């Protein structure tokens, strides 16, 4: 079905009621690399219920933890083949520290649909609200190859280039060969990340790591490095998915402290520093 921007833009995609437990939080943290040093007190705050805290990027999976089917890209005025879709950008703003357990309602609406010629970009916003008010706001975009040309506006490019100086910090983060198998247990069952045949259909030689897994791993690495691992000090985290990550390859993250926030740039050094995350910003609460 061709994209109909007049129907899609502003469309209410409905609400999802969901709940989570400390075990869900721990699983997510393990899936984004927590606990590599199982006796480090800071790592135990991600993995042990005694003093558990919640990384804000948990918001990206909280509503889908009980999802066991591959996702569908289906909104009013939009139907897109999953094999054509890659994640473009993701941002999370937390309105208060996320509790280790709770119940909430998430409402999603389509903010915009952009026509890039050979591709379409669908931007959505999800607000999760608990009994005591708003918990977090997620803003994400997906890039759908072959779905452009529907007569929509192209939109502006919102870039955050790194400062023209050496980074203040360089962080190296490993990924596991089985990282995608762990992360998919958090609710993202897209076969692109586990099925070699599906990955080839989508244009990749092998299954790739979930972009949101990379997003969470880098958020944790930066939080640990600049905020002493205190997740309550994170106000927002945003990034553009600039390239793929292969499970098992290391990540290298450059961090600049600039204007009260942290500008972040992540590469895959094993592939000639191929760019992975760009235009990334962590803003303290």
Automatic annotation (TrEMBL):
Q: What are the GO BP annotations of this UniProt entry?
A: fatty acid beta-oxidation
Q: Which residues form the Peroxisomal multifunctional enzyme type 2-like N-terminal domain?
A: 18-146
UniProt-listed Gene3D superfamilies: Hotdog Thioesterase
Name the residue ranges with Basic and acidic residues bias.
153-168
Q: Which InterPro entries match?
A: HotDog_dom_sf (IPR029069), MaoC-like_dom (IPR002539), MFE-2_N (IPR054357)
Q: Which domain of life is it from?
A: Bacteria
Q: Which residues form the MaoC-like domain?
A: 162-263
Q: Where is this region: Disordered?
A: 147-169
* Listed GO MF terms: (3S)-3-hydroxyacyl-CoA dehydrogenase (NAD+) activity; 17-beta-hydroxysteroid dehydrogenase (NAD+) activity; enoyl-CoA hydratase activity
Pfam families named in the record? MaoC_dehydratas, MFE-2_hydrat-2_N
Family indicated by similarity:
Belongs to the enoyl-CoA hydratase/isomerase family.
**What is the designated name of this protein?**
3-alpha,7-alpha, 12-alpha-trihydroxy-5-beta-cholest-24-enoyl-CoA hydratase
Query: What organism does the UniProt record list as the source?
Result: Amycolatopsis suaedae
